[in-house]
Amino acid sequence: MALLEIRDVTRRFGDFVAVDGVSLSIGAGEFFTLLGPSGCGKTTLLRMIAGFDQPDAGSIVIDGKDMVGVPPEDRNVHTVFQSYALFPHMTVEQNVSFPLRMSKVPQTELGPRVREALEDVSLLGMEKRYPNELSGGQRQRVALARALINRPKLLLLDEPLAALDAKLKERMQLELITLQKEVGVTFIYVTHDQEEALALSHRIAVMNKGQVEQLDEPAKIYGFPKNRFVADFIGECNLLDCSVSAVADGTMFLDVEQLGRVTAIGANGTASGTKGALALRPEKVSIARELAPDACANRFNGHVFDYLYTGDVTLYIVEVENGRRVEVMLPNNAVGRSSKFFEPGDAVQIGWREDAGSFLPD
Questions:
Q1: Where would you tag: which of 207, 233, 237, 325 has the fewest CB atoms within 10 A of its CB?
Q2: Are residue 72 and residue 188 in the same domain, yes or no?
Q3: Residue 358: exposed, middle, or buried by beta-carbon count in 10 A (0-12, 13-18, 19+)?
Q4: CATH number of residue 185's parent domain
């Protein structure tokens, strides 16, 4: 049985439907992420799991018990907010022990349990410091220790890394993964950051306009998006408008606007004339001054229109002969080379294998 079951949950605010008939099942020990743009309903759903808000329809079941009418303090669920919500007048030790003191845990148990919690988050030795004496990453770890000290069944994290700089965020992502494995608590994580979701999660629910667009493992969501929204929202993606001209023996023949005939992997039964888009990740596209003759099933001549250099990779915008612009990502890993391979105006060929893209019907 799943640890958490969300069954057809809906939440309205006047005429606005924030969460629209969402159903999810989350297992014990899972790192599960609710991912989506601002206003998609992910934080509203998290607040209903925590008990801070109530659904207008549907049910939320934790460990087999319906949570209707159960207040937040009786749910064995803790929440870590983006602000961390630490008490500024309390030391690290006092902040972390606060839930135990509210639960009337005997004084003799407080010290060992606080030390254990601080050890879990690598903060031993900082017990007497106040929040204003800590870095952003340290404050976050205090908030995590306080949330985990009672070993809740569920830990809810609402954009906890949003305020951190890039290097600290990366380090805290690694720490979160390690911590979640060590303590074995189910994490439900809310973020709008696609890279963060892909890096941390066992499974991701991509939300849009109050509904779940796709629920799957990170690699499947990235590699096999279900629709245009998911393909466009998760990472960089070329969405090439097209229509199906034929499907035969597992190969789909597509007429792509401003590009021409393209072959892709397809399912027999897709009707000729079906309109949609070919979702093609930039890193799946090859680029060279001249591609090897048998390198790609789909190949086109063009020139470099522009580029975006980001250090480890360069994103090239290539304009092909019919005017379509295609993004191509190339790692900057050539020995002895310190920058990009091509300049704007350079004549190039681009190409990709027929299994590189996914056809998404409208």
A1: 325
A2: yes
A3: buried
A4: 3.40.50.300
Question: Other C-beta atoms within 10 Å of 5: how many?
Answer: 17
Quick one: average pLDDT of 285-306? Answer: 92
- b/e per residue 37-60 (b: at least 16 CB within 10 A): eeebbbbbbbbbbbbebebeebeb
Same domain, 13 and 154: yes
Last residue of a domain, one of 212, 232, 252: 232
| 277 and 211 inside one domain | no
Pairing of β 186-191 and β 31-35 = parallel
Q: Are residues 74 and 214 in the same domain?
A: yes
Q: Which CATH number characterizes residue 335's domain?
A: 2.40.50.100
Q: What is the DSSP letter of 208?
A: E
Q: Give the residue, 82 or 56, on which the prediction is more confident.
A: 56
Res 337: pLDDT: 53
For residue 310, is it left (φ>0), alpha (ψ between -120 and 50) or beta? alpha
Instruction: Band the pLDDT of 73: cuts 50, 70, 90.
Output: confident
Please indicate, yes or no, whether residues 272 and 142 belong to a single structural domain of this protein.
Answer: no
pLDDT per residue as tens digits for the range 8-26 = 999 999 999 999 999 999 9
Rounded Cα distance between 24 and 26, Å, is: 7
CA 270 distance to own-chain centroid: 31
- In angstroms, what is the C-alpha Rg of the chain? 25
Q: What is the pLDDT of residues 298-318, one digit of tens each?
A: 999 999 999 998 888 899 999
Judgement on whether residues 30 and 164 belong to the same structural domain of the protein:
yes
Q: What is the mean pLDDT of the chain?
A: 90
> Both tokens of residue 281?
């990740």
Quote the number of domains for the chain: 2
Task: Answer whether residue 336 shows pLDDT above 60.
Answer: no
What angle (nearest 5°) sits at the alpha carbon of residue 162, between those of residues 158 and 165? 150
**Alpha helix ranges (H) inside 155-217:** 166-183, 194-200
Domain that holds residue 47: 4-232
Q: Could you tell me the two tokens for 84?
A: 């961390």
Beta-sheet pairing, 238-248 with 211-216: unpaired
**pLDDT class of 334 with cuts at 50, 70, 90:** low
Mean pLDDT throughout 58-74?
A: 92
Beta bridge partners of 203: 32
